[in-house]
Design a protein that fits this description.
The chain is α+β, with helices and mostly antiparallel strands and 332 residues long. The protein has 11 helices and 14 strands. The protein binds flavin-adenine dinucleotide and iron/sulfur cluster.
Length: 332
């Protein structure tokens, strides 16, 4: 690993100011579970000269209920989200998604802000510099996408343009399901971005010098049942091959609200409005759930080796919806 300066900052405003003054040479470090690996493996051609430690800022590891929903600090740990009674009570899909990440050690360090901003897991992108030199590709600003004609078994089925990497964040899937907003701070002041607008094909909505200052989730509809599910190759610690989250509200056995989100199939987590609308006004029999899953995957555009993810995604959607019906909203 090359050397860098490690600087503590004590307010978000100070963090933004140092980021600006560094002219792009500083980067935020929160729990460090992703960025330290990225620096150690030297996967990127540009190396930050300064790591800004935002953990020195007090009171950013919070989960607060208010009359509008839930407010989460950028340094809230995934372990805390998984355990929090406030999250488990009304935002069960988020607790489940946080609980599904990595190992207890990772969840004790990893923050929600870092989870949303982690680098892609595309194996061409992550190829270590020490083994014959890093691989350059379009996302790194040089060359074309190596996955299109290469081994793309874990890559995106939807919305990919030029870069086909799939978003690795499990937490983002639950946040999308729950209609979360990201509060962003920069030199120009504060702004809010809906989760569905946060992820871009080549990164995220943060401009240079901007930082996530918090997350807000509106109160879910009364009576909503939720479920997050994840398919991985290794059970104890692994990223999702596909993840799914569902939320439904029933009135007299009829579906009045339905939300479906998938993870690891697109540059960001993705909702499926046509499948959701199909469910509304219906009794959710098994064949209806399966039909909705089929509708959701109709627009998938698989690459040469990732078509198998379509069947996994359909199965996860049906299972997540069924679990909502069975009221298994949290069972860890
Ligand atoms: C073994 C292992 C298994 C894993 N398994 C999973 C998994 O199953 N599912 C999953 O979703 N993730 C998984 N991860 C990824 C893990 O969740 C992330 O590494 C973690 O959430 C990042 O959080 P952090 O606080 O450690 O971020 P850091 O490593 O400190 O930072 C990551 C990135 O986020 C930026 N950043 C951090 N906070 C902010 C902020 N407030 N504003 C702007 N930018 C910010 C940093 O600059 C950096 O670019 C795994 C990681 C490991 C090492
Ligand atoms: S999918 Fe994206 S990160 Fe992976 S090789 Fe292609 S451009 Fe690079």
């Amino acid at each position: 690993m090359r050397s860098f300066q490690h600087i503590n900052v004590f307010t978000l405003e100070e963090a933004v100011s140092v980021l600006k003054d560094s002219g792009g040479k500083a980067q935020v470090i929160a729990g460090g579970t992703d960025i330290i690996g990225v620096l150690k493996e030297q996967i990127l051609p540009d190396y930050p000269e300064i790591l800004l430690n935002i953990k020195a800022i007090p009171d950013l590891d919070y989960i607060k209920k208010d009359h509008e929903g839930l407010r989460i600090g950028p340094l809230a740990k995934l372990a805390g989200l998984a355990k929090s009674p406030a999250v488990r009570e009304k935002y069960g899909a988020l607790a489940q998604a946080a609980r599904s990440v990595g190992s207890p050690q990772i969840r004790n360090m990893a923050t929600i802000g870092g989870n949303l901003c982690q680098e892609t897991r595309c194996w061409y992108y992550r190829y270590p510099h020490s083994i014959g030199g890093r691989l350059l590709c379009l996302r790194k600003g040089s060359g074309s996408c190596l996955a299109v004609n290469g081994d793309n078994r874990y890559h995106a089925l939807f919305d990919a343009r030029r870069c086909f990497a799939a978003c690795p964040s499990d937490v983002a899937v639950a946040l999308l399901l729950l209609g979360a907003e990201i509060n962003i701070l920069g030199i120009g002041g504060k702004r809010t971005v809906y989760l569905q607008d946060f992820f871009h094909p080549l990164g995220n909505a943060l401009e240079p010098g901007e930082i996530i200052g918090g997350i807000h989730i509106p109160t879910p509809p009364v009576g909503a049942k939720q479920q997050f599910l994840k398919f991985t190759l290794r059970k104890p610690i692994d990223f999702a091959v596909v993840s799914a989250a569902a939320l439904i509200v029933l009135d007299g056995g009829i579906c009045t609200e339905a939300r479906i989100a998938l993870g690891a199939v697109a540059p960001g987590p993705r909702r499926f409005p046509e499948a959701e609308n199909f469910l509304k006004g219906k009794r959710l029999e098994t064949n209806v759930l399966e039909k909705a899953a089929g509708i959701a995957l109709e627009g998938a555009k698989p690459l040469s080796k990732n078509g198998y993810k379509i069947e996994i995604a359909k199965t996860l959607i049906s299972r997540a919806l069924s679990a909502c019906l069975e009221n298994e909203s949290f069972n860890h």
